[in-house]
Amino acid sequence: MSFLLRFSGPALALGGVLIVVTVSFGAGIGAPYLLGVALVVLGLVGQIVSARRQRPRRQVEPLRIGVPVTGRWRGLNSPASTVPSHTHALAQTYALDITHEPEGAPPRSMDWLWPPMRRPEGFPSFGRPVLAPFDGVVVEARGSSRDHLTRLSPWGLIVMVLESFVRGLGTPHHLLGNYVLLRAEADDSGLDRPVVAVLAHLRRGSLRVVPGERVRAGQQLGECGNSGNSSDPHVHFQLMDGTDITTAHGLPFEWEYVTEEGQPRHGVPANEELFTAET
């Protein structure tokens, strides 16, 4: 079943192409058109089934890990506000996005009129160090995807929606961009499967680790970028219970951080909550 579900994206794409081509050339409702419809239906069903299969199977206590950044950041798309925070697909049930916002920097906001897109180098998050949240072994690492222009305007969001659909038809790295998958060196959680961290949307050419390398908590893995399915430079972080992001299940986690009011806290920041990594 898992093998067939992997082809749901390509089936959806091929079906869409067949429908568009047959309609464009006025071929009518023939075999190619019906095949296209069938592939689209199978692709959609496959993606729905795949996401449902990745729902967490049982409740587990959040795993306490290190914060993968330093400095002052803002939480986005947080599991502290909504679960799933993103979607169950690709083990993103408890995923969290964070963007760097140093003292005095303007808050992240939309470019409603101009410019339609901006270079990522102008954002505080771009180039910030991304750190290992625990001792572990690098399972996968990719660092060759480009850092694209931002998508923080109405036109940019339209482009991003179209991009997201196309990226979702391919393999997960099209969505993650540059990323590191880090498997915990030791599993003290009581789970019967590994604990794997995903750190995504990293800057092209910034990775400092390779697959198979052992790293220590706090060691720099790369830098924040704007690769993959990203509107603006930020770090996408999640935990999962396996090394295959297409079949694993998301795991909850918690950090030690300091709120904007100076209060120490265990957990994850909520949507739009400012926090500073506890050192």
From TrEMBL:
Specify the domain of life of the species encoding this protein: Bacteria
Q: Which residues form a coiled coil?
A: none
Which GO molecular function annotation, any one, does this entry have? Answer: metalloendopeptidase activity
Question: What Gene3D superfamilies does this protein's entry cite?
Answer: Glucose Permease (Domain IIA)
Q: Does the keyword Transmembrane helix apply?
A: yes
- Print the keywords alphabetically: Membrane, Transmembrane, Transmembrane helix
- Residue intervals passing through the bilayer: 7-27, 33-51
Q: Which InterPro entries match?
A: Cell_wall_metabolism_enzyme, Dup_hybrid_motif, M23ase_b-sheet_dom
User: Pfam families from the xrefs?
Assistant: Peptidase_M23 (PF01551)
User: Which CDD domains has this protein been placed in?
Assistant: M23_peptidase
Q: Which residues form the M23ase beta-sheet core domain?
A: 127-241
Is this entry keyworded Transmembrane helix?
yes
Q: Which PANTHER family match?
A: MUREIN HYDROLASE ACTIVATOR ENVC, PEPTIDASE-RELATED
Query: What's the protein called, per UniProt?
Result: Metalloendopeptidase-like membrane protein
